[in-house]
């Protein structure tokens, strides 16, 4: 009989960006909190979406080590650097294999190519030296002590070529940035029908009928209830689509979204999207 699985989530707190301008509501520009998930069996474990900075990576490594589990795989849900820049260092520390879909690996290379003038500009000296060491997930599944964790491609969300990790034996989806939980969503790549594609991806996650969803960016004071997080992520996108058609300026859109979602963390993420959607 297979041992039961469990999961735990490490929340890396928001990190200040190295910019001087404030968000229109007066907030300092920050990066959203990051969720790093460990799915564990009795002996082995799989880590999902390692963090970005040197400090975050060290903290996550110590957290994994404290569990006493043997880390076999590190899975990356999508190519944004905040969800994988620490992967090579953690893979070396634990002797784990870094895996992702072919599309995500392509996006990882693109994020590495813009690292110097985007990621390093925002967080100078804070990101570890790294390369893309991920290989494609064999057969679309990761084995964990006899259980199969299934990789599901969902397409465009807050970036292209996104995937999620479905853990049927826990009724769990580790959703990366398909689902957000109490944090303003990243809309910088929502041009064209980006919102429509993202809504389709949410439908795919919902079709898996999870009871629990770990969002890639999460308010650590909130639970992982799937029904709520899926519904709230969808509501945010529907509101954004409506307001993009109504508002004529980035500031108007920002203020209207903030009025509708006043309790979400990090309005700076919303402002970053607004300025990209209203060039």
From TrEMBL:
SMART domains named among the record's database cross-references: Lactamase_B
Domain Metallo-beta-lactamase: 33-217
GO molecular function annotations of the record: hydrolase activity
Pfam families linked to this entry: Lactamase_B (PF00753)
UniProt entry keywords in alphabetical sequence: Hydrolase
Superkingdom, natural source: Bacteria
PANTHER family: METALLO-BETA-LACTAMASE DOMAIN-CONTAINING, METALLO-BETA-LACTAMASE SUPERFAMILY PROTEIN
The protein's name: Glyoxylase-like metal-dependent hydrolase (Beta-lactamase superfamily II)
């Amino acid at each position: 009989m297979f041992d039961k699985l469990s999961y735990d989530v490490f929340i890396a707190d928001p990190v200040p960006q190295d910019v001087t301008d404030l968000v229109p509501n007066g907030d300092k520009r920050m990066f959203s909190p990051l969720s790093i998930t460990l799915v564990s069996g009795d002996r082995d474990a799989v880590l999902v979406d390692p963090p970005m900075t040197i400090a975050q990576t060290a903290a996550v490594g110590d957290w994994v080590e404290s569990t006493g589990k043997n880390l076999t795989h590190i899975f990356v849900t999508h190519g944004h650097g905040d969800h994988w820049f620490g992967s090579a260092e953690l893979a070396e520390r634990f002797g784990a294999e870094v895996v992702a879909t072919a599309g995500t690996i392509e996006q990882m290379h693109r994020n590495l190519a813009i690292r110097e003038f985007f990621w390093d500009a925002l967080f100078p000296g804070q990101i570890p030296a790294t390369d893309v060491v991920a290989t494609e997930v064999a057969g679309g599944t990761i084995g964990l002590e006899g259980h199969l964790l299934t990789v599901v491609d969902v397409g465009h969300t807050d970036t292209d070529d996104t995937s999620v990790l479905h853990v049927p034996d826990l009724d769990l989806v580790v959703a990366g940035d398909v689902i957000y939980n109490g944090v303003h969503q990243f809309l910088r790549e929502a041009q064209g029908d980006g919102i429509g594609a993202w809504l389709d991806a949410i439908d795919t996650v919902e079709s898996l009928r999870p009871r629990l969803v770990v969002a890639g960016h999460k308010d650590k004071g909130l639970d992982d209830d799937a029904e709520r997080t899926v519904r709230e992520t969808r509501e945010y996108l529907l509101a954004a689509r409506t307001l993009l058609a109504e508002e004529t300026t980035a500031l108007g859109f920002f203020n209207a979204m903030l009025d509708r979602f006043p309790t979400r963390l990090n309005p700076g993420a919303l402002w970053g999207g607004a300025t990209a959607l209203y060039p």
